[in-house]
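FYI - complex with alpha-D-galactopyranose, inputs then prediction.
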Amino acid sequence: MTDRVVAFAPGRVNLMGDHTDYAGGLALPIAIDLGTTVRGIRGGERVVLTSTDRERAADLPLSIPDPGSVEPAWGRYLAGVVAELQPDRGLVGAITTTLPIGAGLSSSAALELAVALAMGFAGPPRALAHLGQRAEQRASGVPCGLMDQLTSACGIEGHALLIDFSDETILPVRVPDGIDVIVVHSGEERALATSAYARRRAEVESAIEEIGPLRDATTADARSLPDAVRRRARHVITENVRVRSFAAALASGDTSLIGPLMAESHLSLRDDFEVSTAALDETVSRLTALPGVLGARLTGAGFGGCVVTLTEQGAIADPSGVTGRGWIVRPSTGARTTLA
Ligand code: GLA
């Protein structure tokens, strides 16, 4: 039995709430109208996929004990999906994407989810997100949280997702008309420094062990912690509060709070969480100086990659003019399959 399939999964940009997901905190991402498409035919006993962005095709068996050692390296994400899904038939096809790779817009989450759907995953969106997260961790060795995959799986057109990672509930928050969401690349490829991300996560976990869940803690509770851990905890505690305020500002259409909240978030990620870079700081400064810009901050893991900025509609007509690479993005629907 064979059948043709087309599956699409979007990337994401996070408006507020970074490095909070693995702390059981809050975030406010959007799924975007850039994403990854897999077109193929199900059947056979191998997964063979080409990608317009890659020279070598991935050619994998259906049983993969160690996805992290697969070559070519981009095939590790597919291998992670195959290892998690344990499909009983293969897929032969082609991958295309409109996402920049490795820029912090969750190109890997989009790839994982589109491949899982194309291979026949048929469960609910949250289960798809968890499968993608496990695949990512196996492929990359990075102990990532759930935000990227959950956003790609559950995106809602015109809305940001207020995600509470303590119970994975999602509250849709309308992005008001008259606001553009723009992503600008800092010019520095994001090395999702495996070890730096893992270290931050370990520091946050040690803070939680000492003072309990950070979503219930205050900055005063964090004072007893050793220096670096205290600052990591302070970022998560204050960032959770900013997510609520930012969601409320969007919901009420009060755009005056957007700038100060985004500025505070960027400074907290720079100084307390120490995941910014000179290029990200410079991109934020350049953007906030432009007329019609409401606010800007680094988005995603940091260590390079992109800045997100909210502007009055039409304020930045050519987002690639700022640093050479940029995109106007629209809040979009989550991952989906169409049997062709
Ligand atoms: C990466 C991870 C996410 C999240 C962000 C930071 O994108 O994959 O789980 O931790 O960094 O908010």
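DSSP finds nine helices and 13 strands in the chain. The CA atoms of residues 76 and 323 lie 31 Å apart.
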